Amino acid sequence: MHAFKLPGIAMVLVLLAGCSGIEPWVKPYERDNLADPIMSLSRHGYADTYMHHVYQAREAARGAEGGTGGGCGCN
Amino acid sequence: MVVAAISLVTGTLRLYWAWLNGTRLRVYSSGRVCSHPAGGAATKQARIASPVFRQTYTLLALLAFTTTSFAATLAPDAVDIMHHRYEGGGMEIDGPSVLVRKSIGTQVSVTGHYYIDSISAASVDVIALGSSEYTEERTEISGGIDYLHEKTIMSMGYTNSSENDYEANTLYFSVSQDFFGDLTTLTLGYARGWDDVGQRGQPESEWEEADRHNYKIGVSQVITRNMLMGLDIDVITDEGKLENPYRRNRYVDASATAGYSFQNELYPDTRTSTAAALRVMYYLPYRASLKADYRFFRDTWGIQAHTVGAGYTHTFGDHWKADIHYRYYTQDQADFYADLFPFQNSQTHLARDKELSQYAGSTVGLGASYELKQGVIPGIDRLLFSVLLDRLDFSYDNFRDLTQTGHAVGEEPLYAFDALVSRISLILEY
Amino acid sequence: MIKQFKGLFALLVIAAMATSVQAENLEGPAPDFTLKSKSGENVRLEDLRGQVVMLNFWASWCGPCRQEMPHMEDIFKKYEKFGFTVLAVSVDENPEDANRFLDAVPVSFPILYDTESRVSQLYDVDAMPTTVMIDRDGNKRFLHRGYKPGYEKDYKKQVKKLIRE
Q1: Which of B213, C19, C52, C115 meets the CB 3.0–4.6 Å disulfide criterion with C84?
Q2: Model pTM?
Q3: Which of B21, B150, B315 to mutate to test the interface with C (most CBs of C within 10 A)?
Q4: Range of weakest confidence among B274-278, B414-418, C144-148
Q5: Cβ within 8 Å, pair C8-B235
Q6: Phi then psi for A3, rounded to 5 degrees?
Q7: CA distances (Å), C72 to each of B201, C54, C131, C144, in order?
Q8: Are B67 and A42 contacting, i.e. CB atoms less than 8 angstroms apart?
Q9: What number is the ipTM of this complex?
């Protein structure tokens, strides 16, 4: 399954992290829109997580619902 | 503080080492690891949802973590109170949810969560089997801890879900790392679940077990200053008693008055599933956002499912926001599913659980929220009050409504129902 | 697949242990700039030659930046009389957002607006917040990337050092 290839890609990403060759194309001071709460996956806190409860109890499909990232990138 | 940090790190490494050795981790309060797990990995209504789907609550353990943290900063201290209500298909489920997050020092944040489902059910599954409406309560408690080091967040947590005939325990662990000037976030997670599946009235010593492993990988990428993309992949394996002990399937039986008789469900002992989802978020210049997502799902039971969703959020002034979203879901049936089997024990595995049938579901959701930033209420940095309503429609292609009498066997109308989900939530950041 | 996953997990944890540079020493003159301040007048860095300047880049949407403000206020109040000032450059595209934050958390040091990110680019800002310590001769001396509670102790130490020079 293609799913199995992704850990390999991720491993490459981790190794690349050591290299500083790639310049970030969105500067930290340009992240104001990304830091806006409306660009967050779960703006409503646990209320958003709850909907996954509702679907998982009634559907056969499960997984791949969440995510991190974006935000202000501070620190 | 240093002692706490050291015991946290050694506790983490101990868990990690035990996991590498495939040790079955029983979570007793260890005292070494601050035990306030977060996440909601557990079960739902016993007779309403098959254990198959209850087991997937492992995912919520990971979900609660992933959806609250941002790149390289811990989530803010907050109290998140919600009242939830589901009504539809003959079922009413409501209850409270309270989540508290508190930071300890500068690098650690702990969460505790308490959640209840109060269920009264007269669903098609219950009525068709001749049972009457019943009520039940499910309680879920979780605790978790996040540790921030430079651009990495390590999290772990524990959840217990308990009802009178089902007990689920989940332990999760995840690592999230930022790369490339914080434009990329990679998250890896693993959750392990232990469920005890029983029936009402059955002594706990006779309950059976179901275990699961959940491997999760997610990549989130900043594309432009207005666009985010994410890719998530989940691989889940279950093993043990995966069928719902209360559900029955039916087979043609000329000797029965109804023309059919019931027999127990019989599922395979194992199930492995893979889900991959892609999502995009785009910021519109007038303080609005667009979201779109697609998920593909496939498992070893022959089920394939597709989920698509789209959403729009609009900001009005300084305080008000409105959301609208649409979700469409389709799945095809499990290999061993049938609404009506030709005779008793006609297959190795038998299922008539409607969650394994072929069907489509759609959701339309609306939300409104009010936000207050710091300076208005002393001690509160941010307040968010939200009211969210979702209407779900399910329409089954090969599951029939046996509560409709007066039809020939196998020609009862196909089942369909709708449900209204309401959520009222108050988040206070302090 | 599970083996790959475990390997990747291990790698990630190891990568996590690697530290990135959050504070470093700098050399060379601090590039000059002129920006409009909250009180209306233009502020030019060259005019502050002879004072120790703590140049801070912040934004209203950045959590750690907001956390840092009260600490900067403490440092400003304590050392101002020794020839020290804080210049807090807001990189908010819309100055209204910065002002709204300052209404709730008032400070007494100068606030400058860099709405076009000119000065952020000039100083190669690659983290939010960023603090640059500039000595009385107008040279860059110390750099801090990001803010976590506890950094203000380093700020104080460095300000004291530069004041005494």
Answers
A1: C52
A2: 0.83
A3: B150
A4: C144-148
A5: no
A6: -55, -35
A7: 64, 9, 11, 13
A8: yes
A9: 0.82
